[in-house]
Amino acid sequence: SYQETGRWASEDFFQIFDVDFIEGQKTNSLTEPTTVYISKSTKERLFGSKSALTESIEVDGWGQFQVGGVFQDVPNETTIDFDFILPYQRWREVFDWIEQWENSGNKGIAKLVAGTDINAFNKKIESYIDQKLPNRENNVSIFVEPLKDRYLYNNYENGVIAGGRITYVKLLTIVACFILLIAIINFINLATARSTKRAKEVGIKKVVGSSRAQLQFQFMIESILLALISAVLAGLLISIVIQPLNLLVGKNMTFSLLEFGQASWLLAIGLGVGILAGLYPSFVLSGFKALSVLKGSFKTSNWSNGIRKGLVVFQFTISTALIISTLIIRDQMDYVKNKNLGYEKEHLLIIPLEGALRDPSTQERLKTEILSNTNFTHASFSAGTPLNFYAATDAGFSWEGKVSDFDNKFNLINTDADFFDTYGMEIIKGRGFDTNLSTDTLNVIINEQAANVMNVEDPILLPVTLWGSTGRVVGIVKDFHFSSLHEKIGPVVMPYRPEYPLSLTVRITGQNMAQSLQYLEGVVSELNPNYPFDYSFVDEAYEQLYKSESIVGVLINYFSAIAIFISLLGLFGLSSFAAEQRIKEIGVRKVLGANIMNLIVLMSKGFLLLVGIGFVLAAPLGYSFMNSWLESFEYRTQIEVSVFILAAGISLLITIITVSYHALKAGYANPVKSLRYE
């Protein structure tokens, strides 16, 4: 058993896309309505090594097609994926709605002449629909967009790009740059903090004739070499983590230090980091005065110390902002998972109806056998589900009193009498469908939002027309969320049309899940032996709606951990240096009676002040940024004060733990050792 992904396409398809044929000809392809074009892997699966051009294939529900050509497999990265292509002409002959300009079910692809101004082109075609529907009030216009932008720039509002996946690409790029900047700050801080260790080296080199420019060059080269070595190590680390990362994000990214382009980018980044990190220390270290250094009167300037403290504040501003972002993303994902959707998504399983399962008598037998097992409580045939509508229409649904400029679109789900019980939906007014009433095949049930936009006093028993069939509204179902929480609940119309199902939804008790699935597979496989047993759980499909947000949430967790770790490395180094500089002071304080807690407070208070300032700066930044992100959700959690309290607590706690290590180490040291030469 196997399934292939196919598409209908008109005759210019293979002229527009760069697909290489290994059997047959591109020219005049897709002109014959009984011809199919298949991929190389499909051909090998069906026919092995022999030629496929003389063979025929039966496509479920469409009959026999003769193979007209075999093309190379399309890459996994392609926006439009397919294993076989059928001629659009055949589809067009069967479905007359294709000829209706009110319908937006088709996608068009155009290859423009090189150099075409897309904005000017769009200006020419924006009123095209109005020309085709001159007597209809509508707010629809058409425009083209580059196919290369389709994946990343996939959100539009009123014909204007309003973000999409590119938002997360930019977000993660900015976070990565900030993490790199934190590492650069660490290098600058530690290099300048330990400048006294290299002061004598600089003084001696200046005495023996080294110029400031030579010293700057030396320190810059040291920084660049360290960064380039780090870049190579980073490349090796990327090679190790790339596959786990692919599993996390569901992509097929590759990386190799042997690939010139990727290695060049990595080394260029390393070179840039080395220059940025080494620039300030090279000027500071090379600026020491030889006489002061060799006299032993050298001290770091207040200006240099101020710069260092400012950089520490910047580090913890970024780290704390990432902590705040992580906590808010987690809260929103919890909100999404626990939101009452208006239906019970747990223990719902959807089986697509293919092959023999499209036969009404087989469907009846399937439903009977499933419900004979006590592990299943409900079953419903439908075309569409709350997560995937059957269709949508505006002009196709009308009622008495509908205004001419009405511009709301109604989503459609074809249901049967068991649909609402299976999904656990609540009918708040009127009734559900009755199998004993033949007139119900003309009637519809609407949701609350549909009742609102129809703007009638009482929609129950109101005459309505759906695509030419006139019936009545017999019930109103409580609003339920469809698609994702990014979108506001819209109007939904659910006609009683059990004769046109696309899937079967089954409610499982939740007990003996493995046994239930095994039973279900046995029943479906017996009735439909030529197809693989395919199913999906509604709650898992719902989670897939937020796959991007979930992945970004996980990545932000990792990035936050990395940023905090790098910041703490810098803090660890600075606190080590501070403890070393104050070792005699600590010895004197111990002799005079200071305890360990006094020393921890002494060592920590300066750093805690810097971290506190970082939090004060991070809080409004984190709030503003995450509030902007939450605005993409129509239904969202509230940003609570507890988020900021927790973020502050985390920042302060890890700072105290980091600094306390050196305070304890210095505190437990014998003061005699630090004071013996005084």
Describe what you observe in this structure.
There is one protein chain. The protein is an alpha+beta fold and 678 residues long. The protein is 50% helix and 13% strand. The protein has 21 helices and 20 strands. A hairpin with a 2-residue loop joins strand 7 (156-157) and strand 8 (160-161).
Mean pLDDT: 86
Please tell me how large the radius of gyration is. 34 Å
Helix content: 40-55%
Distance between the termini: 87 Å
Low-pLDDT runs = none
Count of helical regions? 21
| Approximate strand percentage | 5-15%
Structural class: alpha+beta
Q: What is the global morphology?
A: elongated
Sheet having the most strands: 8 strands, mixed
Oligomer: single chain
Number of separate strands: 20
Which short descriptors sum up this protein?
6-stranded mixed beta sheet; 8-stranded mixed beta sheet; 678 residues; 50% helix; alpha+beta; single chain
